[in-house]
Input
Amino acid sequence: MKIERRLFASLSRYLPEEWKGSPVVEVPEGMTAKNLLEKIGVPLGAVKVIFINGVHASGDEVIGDGDRVGVFPPVAGG
Output
């Protein structure tokens, strides 16, 4: 199944080389957002916020065909 994935800010360094050309990637059925992050080597401790289709998610939800997954690290500012 195909999903759209976005790793923002410092998390983009974890993108596999074959995923750098397009935000749409092929993933197996039944995968959760956390499974996806673990598969590509993103430390879950580096993740602050996960969105699936623009809705805040825990990461344990199963991703469906055509879903958009956005992942953000912690940020600080002043």
